[in-house]
Amino acid sequence: MQEDKDDLFAEEMSGVKPLPRHNQADVKKAKEDTPGQEARRKAAVRHKLLDLNFLSSDDHVEILKSNDLLEYKKDGVQHGVYKKLRLGQYQIEARLDLHRKTVEEARVEVFQFVRDCLRYDLRTVIILHGKGDRNQNQEAVIKSYVNRWLREFDEVLAFHSAQKQHGGSGAVYVLLRKSDREKQNNRERFGSR
């Protein structure tokens, strides 16, 4: 059967000659990018490199109410340390105010704030996220995202809603991991290896 088809094809093609090389059309598309395409590609690569922010932005987040308390403690954080944080007994070394920020602005600011705090070896900081009282439904959108974002940092050991004098349920104390440099300083200061 296949042999018959091959013979039939050869019979039909008898007398057909290939086109000379110079008479063939070049159907390949030129691969040159326009200046606009090149600029957009570079901008996309640059944006991807600059945005190392791993905090979620478009995932579903459980929306909290204005008076809900934020509380979180990683395994290994001592009860006494967490209690002292919860009661606002640590000196606050830095603060971030997110009032009147969009979710995306807050995402960028929280990421940069925590990074800066880590760079300067700050341990206890506060983030003022607001309560969402101006909402009709009393939904605290920024607070809800802050609750999620802080959990995404390996360096955040614990956090808890602030005491009334520091903003109450509209703010959160954050305890950050000690840097290796600071751990070494403590070892030297207190004589342990």
UniProtKB/TrEMBL annotation:
Write out the ranges of the annotated region (Disordered).
1-39
Gene3D superfamilies membership: 3.30.1370.110
Q: Locate the Smr domain: which residues?
A: 96-177
Q: Which domain of life is it from?
A: Bacteria
An example of a Pfam family matching this protein is: Smr
What spans are recorded as compositionally biased (Acidic residues)?
A: 1-10
Q: What is this protein called?
A: Uncharacterized protein conserved in bacteria
Q: What is the lineage of its organism?
A: Bacteria, Pseudomonadati, Pseudomonadota, Gammaproteobacteria, Oceanospirillales
